[in-house]
Amino acid sequence: MRVLMAAPSSPARLHNLAPFAWALRTAGHDVKIAGRPSFVEEILRTSSVAIELESGDEGALAESAALTGFAELWRPQVVVSDALAPAGTAAARAVGAVAVRVLGALDEPATDDTADVTLDTVPPSLRAGSGEVRAMRHVPYFGPVVVPNWLRRKARRSRVLLSLTDETLFGPLFDVVAGADFELVCAARIPAGVTMPANVRLVDSAPPAALLPTCAAVIHDGDAALALAAAAHGLPQLSLAESAIASRITAAGAGKTGSGEEARTLTTDEDLSRAATALREEIAALPAPRTVMAELLR
């Protein structure tokens, strides 16, 4: 069977589609992913066959004559689209294919969804939107990585991954965690004048795919992909910035949102740990991409 996928120029959104693409390919189906010219290399990094579309809006794939044209030529039976790639649904309608929409941590279910089937990789307990959706297990993926040499040695104490995009947060957080009984690992440029505590480990590379299975907790500033990946690993987390997914993880008792003052007890709070484990078990119990794929194609 031929399956055409449509992705906007967002690595996080492409990575949410990739496990479903792999499930289809390993089941013997012909899968191709379409994107803007500037995004083709990113698609190829997922080991997928890429279709180069015309130049246009990078943030969303709302319209694409090239996508519809390719669909008319190739005649896929199914077209799978990210929530910000409605051009995929239009292409499906043009050729009479089944239109599938995939939601992730950055999306909300919609009552006006025009796809035939909507799959959601966010667990039901973290959803507040309405709409008819079919749950699919989230499989964390961040692109190709190499396990760093330093990670091949067992940690001497609990390890916490730190991932921040806002440099102003480092100083206040470091002041709080100084002397805490865990190792805070980060790969970042620390601003001048910020004192780094002895329990902070600055590394050249801290890929979440390699690091999360070794961690006891995660601290971030609202990264939705990292927040959902941490939830899938059953890790308590602290978000130093507000985001929809972080707020819901906090409401579920599996995380905290707010200032760095919450960081010191992140690895010792038993209630937090139990809730994070429950969230991991909920995600693990959802149908895997290969199961959803088999049900979809019956």
UniProtKB/TrEMBL annotation:
Source organism of the structure: Amycolatopsis pretoriensis
> Mind telling me which InterPro entries this protein's record contains?
EryCIII-like_C (IPR010610), EryCIII-like_N (IPR048284)
Locate the Erythromycin biosynthesis protein CIII-like C-terminal domain: which residues? Answer: 175-296
Name the domain of life this protein comes from. Answer: Bacteria
Q: Source organism lineage?
A: Bacteria, Bacillati, Actinomycetota, Actinomycetes, Pseudonocardiales
Where is each Erythromycin biosynthesis protein CIII-like N-terminal domain found? Answer: 114-164
Record's keyword terms, sorted: Transferase
Q: Identify this protein by name.
A: Uncharacterized protein
Matches recorded under Pfam families: EryCIII-like_C, EryCIII-like_N
Q: Name one GO molecular function term.
A: glycosyltransferase activity
